[in-house]
Design a protein that fits this description.
Helices cover about 40% and strands about 20% of the residues. By secondary structure, it is of the alpha/beta class. Bound molecules: adenosine-5'-triphosphate and magnesium ion. Adenosine-5'-triphosphate binds near residues 11, 107, 162 and 165.
Length: about 200
């Protein structure tokens, strides 16, 4: 049975936390490919609107281009309306690999919000939901807080956690501090070239 992964996110910008989480999940779960899916319109409100989708897409491509099993999808960017994971998983199941088992990978923090996700119960029927280590969040504790019938459909995975966030990268760029080793060099170069994240 093929096993495939989806890593959703705003990727504003993508960083080593995302990449390490995906790679650890790929290895632990034996995933053949991981699809990075930058969101179009975030389904849950963010503190600030994300930068243009084409920039987030380009940075995600730059960050993943050297990995033979990492791929980037425009499916959420090209779909009008809010980006719901359930629609995305349906798309991959029908259009990309109907015969595969699909794993939706998130960081531990996302698990706390899962009950707010649109049609999350359907989502859990369509794919395996995996929450990996993210420093500062206890995935297992969040899992146990889920309703009793939901918790068994979610798995947590211990991975080498790195405490990096896109918000911190944006803040660092805004205040002229270094982002080296937080995100791949081509992503940092892209940010400076296109003068992203300078306005507060
Ligand atoms: P922001 O600070 O803007 O919220 P972020 O760093 O949390 O950005 P997102 O694009 O919101 O990045 O996250 C996409 C997915 O990646 C989510 O499932 C999130 O839990 C996960 N993720 C982000 N950073 C890490 C990290 N350092 N370790 C593990 N998972 C992470
Ligand atoms: Mg986040």
């Amino acid at each position: 049975m093929r096993a495939m992964g989806i890593m959703g996110g705003t990727f504003d910008p993508i960083h080593y936390g995302h990449l390490l989480a995906a790679e650890a999940a790929r290895e632990a779960l034996g995933l053949e490919e991981i699809w990075f899916v930058p969101c179009g319109q975030p389904a849950l409100p963010k503190a600030e609107p994300p930068c243009a989708g084409h920039h987030r897409y380009s940075m995600t491509v730059l960050a993943t281009v050297t990995h033979p099993q990492f791929r980037v999808s425009r499916v959420e960017l090209d779909r009008p309306g809010p980006s719901y994971a359930v629609d995305t998983v349906r798309f991959f199941r029908t259009e990309v690999a109907p015969e595969a088992e699909w794993y939706f990978i998130t960081g531990a923090d996302a698990l706390a919000q899962l009950p707010e996700w649109y049609e999350y119960r359907t989502l859990l029927h369509l794919c395996h939901f995996v929450a990996v280590t993210r420093p500062g969040y206890d995935a297992e504790e969040f899992r146990q807080q889920l309703a009793a019938e939901i918790a068994p459909q979610v798995q947590t995975l211990r991975t080498p956690g790195v405490d990096i966030s896109s918000s911190e990268i944006r803040e660092r760029v805004r205040t002229g501090r270094s982002i080296r080793y937080l995100t791949p060099d081509p992503v940092a170069a892209y940010i400076y070239k296109h003068r992203l994240y300078l306005a507060g």
